[in-house]
Amino acid sequence: MSGKKKVGVIIPAAGKGTRLGGVESKQFLELKGKPVLVHTLLRFQQCTEIDAIVVAVEPSYREKLMQLIHEYRLTKVFRIVDGGAERQDSVRNCLRILKEASADIVIVHDAVRPFVTLSTIRSVLEAVDITGAAIAGVRVKDTIKIADGKRIIRDTPEREQLWIAQTPQAFTCGLLARAFEEASKVNFIGTDDSSLVERLGVGVTIVEGDYNNIKITTPEDMQIAEFIADRQISSNETD
């Protein structure tokens, strides 16, 4: 990044994660002896470009998160906020804090993507420094079909133009705040934070992410996460 800009990170971690089953929210399930959320936070804790982290959680998990922050010395987590009804509400609550803290750049990252690498974080930061809006993503490997309501195929788009969006997603603080403000006016709920910025007509750059940067949503994802974690531990592969 050019010059020293204050970089804040938003981790929305207030979801219930019902598709994984059980009573524990998925971000607090253990992966190799540590909660998934801790793995995620440690990646940003270790990134020297990051100045501050704000986490949104369901109020009943606030005390547990505070204990984890102390236990794992997550010193960059400077505020815990209550999550909202939707993920977008949780991000908005965190964004308000970072805006007050005068952050220049804001990164939003899913709490349940514990395998984000330092190189991916830095690639997104380098891109946002140039364009003001950037996200990580990976190229689609399979052929994609577009079907109508009757499941009749209507189109087969070229794979070269198709990407799977991931997080981290990074934006200048002012741009993201404006995107949330405009979305709020019409009650628009986006599928990710980039979609809110795209509504403004702003070009968002996509940089090569990592296929290991999975989002843990289902029991099968947790099994894959165990495999990735084992491989990374054996090879010390974190960056």
Structure, described:
The chain is of the alpha/beta class. The protein has a single domain (7-235), classed as Spore Coat Polysaccharide Biosynthesis Protein SpsA, Chain A, CATH 3.90.550.10. The chain contains seven helices and eleven strands. The protein has a seven-stranded mixed beta sheet with strand order 5-4-1-6-10-7-11, with helices on both faces. Strands 2-3 form a two-stranded antiparallel sheet. It is globular. The model has no long low-confidence stretch (mean pLDDT 94).
Task: Describe how the helices and strands are arranged.
Layout: E1 7-13, E2 30-31, E3 34-35, H1 36-45, E4 52-57, H2 62-71, E5 77-82, H3 87-100, E6 105-108, H4 118-131, E7 133-139, E8 146-147, E9 153-155, E10 163-172, H5 173-185, H6 193-198, E11 205-208, H7 219-235
- Give the full name of the CATH homologous superfamily: Spore Coat Polysaccharide Biosynthesis Protein SpsA, Chain A
Return the average pLDDT rounded to an integer: 94
What count of helical segments does DSSP give? 7
| CATH architecture annotation | Alpha-Beta Complex
How are strands sequenced across the largest beta sheet? 5-4-1-6-10-7-11
CATH class: Alpha Beta
Distance between the ends: 18 Å
Helix content: 25-40%
Oligomer: single chain
Global structural class: alpha/beta
Unreliable stretches (pLDDT < 50, length at least 5) are: none
The CATH topology turns out to be Spore Coat Polysaccharide Biosynthesis Protein SpsA, Chain A
Overall tally of structural domains: 1
The major pleated sheet works out as: 7 strands, mixed
What is the alpha-carbon Rg in Å? 18 Å
How many beta-strand runs?
11
Q: SSE string, helix = H, strand = E?
A: EEEHEHEHEHEEEEHHEH
Q: What would you call the shape?
A: globular
Strand content is 15-25%
